[in-house]
């Protein structure tokens, strides 16, 4: 074992290559080999393939025994494979030389450019040539993985492969189905989208898709986030940004396991997932203490009333760095919103614009100046009430 780990000097010494001075027969041998190969290749260009077959058959017939014929066939196979290998190697060398002349950027700058591409464009670039493929395999190119699509065409294997390629450079992951151009986070346009709207799978019901889970190769399932917690959570520890859109097969347990593996998460965006607000916020407050941006839009607008006051308090105490908070489509109440808005000292932006159960009375017990320094989006029906509050404040 010591010999294998620490080989001696004698075992590591390279065998000297024979030079032409030591063996004067080498130049003549190489010359004969070159002439033989040149004549063989010239014959293959000028002679029809049938003549080559007939010549080989005549050689086999002239062999004295069956063993000699088998040996001749084996040599032909070996020679053909050697010629094919040499031709492929030479073709790659010529292509690399051509690429290096046509593409002026060195590999390090090419990798830098590729790292700025989205994931789909990176895959297109990798399929262009061998040089681009080699540069596109660099981990820096997969630091920010964006696999969002308009129709389902990404599966769990693609996600796992890209996370493995990213290695220690992994920082951002975006997954799921986005309905057309992504809306700005501050707008009231919903991002929730159902897979039933997709052209590719419009003919299948939800039960049909569950039974076809093993056959559908372009749909993400609840296990799409398992690579974050695999290998002792090596990938999840490096993650800073996680955006998930309309993954219908995602559940509370799988999402909480993924969040538990992401202690350094700064930006979390969840849209259209069939997960509860309370369990998700509990997982965030327990594991993601550094989070600064939280965007959560419900898949069932106005029906999720799972959030409780203790969960709001835990979120405020355990995640004090939140400066952007958006909880859209949930059944929230004024006292819960008051805990969140007043508790986050660094909060600069809050969006509860699609929560119909908020009346706006939480502003009465807050210092209005501190509230006005923050941008808070509520449902339009509360505009008159807020205007009255402002007039009342400035009157006194």
Can you write the helix and strand succession as a string? HHHHHHHHEHEHHEHEHEHEHEHEH
| Largest sheet composition | 8 strands, parallel
CATH architecture of the domain at 142-179 and 217-391, by name, is Alpha-Beta Horseshoe
CATH superfamily of the domain at 142-179 and 217-391: Ribonuclease Inhibitor
Low-pLDDT windows of residues: 1-14, 184-188, 195-216, 381-396
> What value does the average pLDDT take?
76
* Percent of sequence in beta strands: 5-15%
Give the strand order of the largest sheet, numbering strands 1, 2, ... along the chain: 1-2-3-4-5-6-7-8
CATH topology call of the domain at 142-179 and 217-391 = Leucine-rich repeat, LRR (right-handed beta-alpha superhelix)
CATH C-level class of the domain at 142-179 and 217-391 is Alpha Beta
> Please, how many helices?
17
Shape: elongated
Between the first and last Cα atoms, what is the distance in angstroms? 88 Å
Radius of gyration computed on alpha carbons: 33 Å
Helicity range of the residues? 40-55%
From the helix content, strand content and strand pairing, which structural class follows? alpha/beta
């Amino acid at each position: 074992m010591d010999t294998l780990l620490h080989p001696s000097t004698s075992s590591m010494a390279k065998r000297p290559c024979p030079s032409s001075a030591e063996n004067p027969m080498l130049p003549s041998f190489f010359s004969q080999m070159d002439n033989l190969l040149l004549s063989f290749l010239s014959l293959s260009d000028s002679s029809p393939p049938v003549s080559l077959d007939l010549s080989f058959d005549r050689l086999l017939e002239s062999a004295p025994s069956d063993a000699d014929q088998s040996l001749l066939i084996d040599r032909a196979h070996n020679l053909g494979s050697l010629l094919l290998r040499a031709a492929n190697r030479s073709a790659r060398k010529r292509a690399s030389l051509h690429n290096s002349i046509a593409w002026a950027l060195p590999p390090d700058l090419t990798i830098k450019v590729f790292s700025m591409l989205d994931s789909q464009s990176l895959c297109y670039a990798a399929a262009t040539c061998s040089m681009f493929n080699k540069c596109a395999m660099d981990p820096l190119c997969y630091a920010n993985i964006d696999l969002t699509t308009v129709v389902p065409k990404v599966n769990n294997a693609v996600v796992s492969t890209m996370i493995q390629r990213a290695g220690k450079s992994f920082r951002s992951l975006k997954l799921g189905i986005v309905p057309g151009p992504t809306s700005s986070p501050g707008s009231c346009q919903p991002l929730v989208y159902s897979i039933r709207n997709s052209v590719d799978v419009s003919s299948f019901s939800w039960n049909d898709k569950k039974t076809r889970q093993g056959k559908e190769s372009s749909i993400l399932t609840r296990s799409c986030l398992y690579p974050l917690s695999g290998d002792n959570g090596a990938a999840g520890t490096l993650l800073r940004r996680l955006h998930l859109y309309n993954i219908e097969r995602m559940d509370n347990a799988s999402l909480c396991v993924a969040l538990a593996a992401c202690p350094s998460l700064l930006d979390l965006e969840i849209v259209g997932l069939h997960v509860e607000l309370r369990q998700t916020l509990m997982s965030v407050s327990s594991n993601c203490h550094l989070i600064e941006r939280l965007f959560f839009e419900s898949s069932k607008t106005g029906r999720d009333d799972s959030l409780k006051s203790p969960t709001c308090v835990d979120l405020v105490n355990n995640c004090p760095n939140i400066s952007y908070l958006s909880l859209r489509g949930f059944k929230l109440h004024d006292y819960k919103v008051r805990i969140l808005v007043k508790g986050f000292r660094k909060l600069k932006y809050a969006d509860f614009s699609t929560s119909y159960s908020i009346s706006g009375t939480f502003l009465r017990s807050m210092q209005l100046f501190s509230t006005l320094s923050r941008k808070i989006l509520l449902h339009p029906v509360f505009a008159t009430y807020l205007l009255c509050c402002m007039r009342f404040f400035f009157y006194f």
